[in-house]
What we know:
Elements: E1 7-12, E2 18-20, E3 23-25, H1 32-45, E4 51-57, E5 64-67, E6 80-86, E7 89-95, E8 102-107, E9 112-115, H2 119-122, E10 123-127, E11 137-143
2-oxoglutaric acid is lined by residues 53, 55, 64, 69, 82, 91, 107, 125, 127, 139, 141.
Amino acid sequence: MVDSPRLSCWIGDPGASYVYSRVRFEPRPWPQALAALRPRIDAAAGVAMNSVLANLYRDGRDAMGWHSDDEPELGPRPVIASLSLGGTRRFAFRHRHDPARKHAIDLPHGSLLLMAGDTQAEWKHALPRTARPVPARINLTFRRILPSP
Ligand SMILES: O=C(O)CCC(=O)C(=O)O
Ligand SMILES: [Mn+2]
């Protein structure tokens, strides 16, 4: 159990375990709805995903702080496909070495954001809290965990 301002679940193929914020997650098996989505995500991303981190943001107080998805098991230039469902939330980027460089994008229901290339190496991202009333939101980040050596 980890205290965090959202509810999270790690899903994936057997062995696609993942260390996130120093906690190791062993994946739960794919539920049918996500197994059905997977080939469409793979086609859009051009990568065979083997796992997905599901996050539920119950309201505007739930959030995710600044981070990069740069864990070694993702490899140096990971492709991460982020599917958003439910309430629109703002997603923010900040350059790692030049925090004055910032971008933000609203992620509406049904949107698929692809992060690729040097995005994780050069940028951090966050899902800030908001004081506006917002409906619940689910975010699914499909990832490819590389086999451990
Ligand atoms: O909820 C989001 O849009 C971002 C989620 C995220 O950055 C992550 O799961 O690593
Ligand atoms: Mn992330």
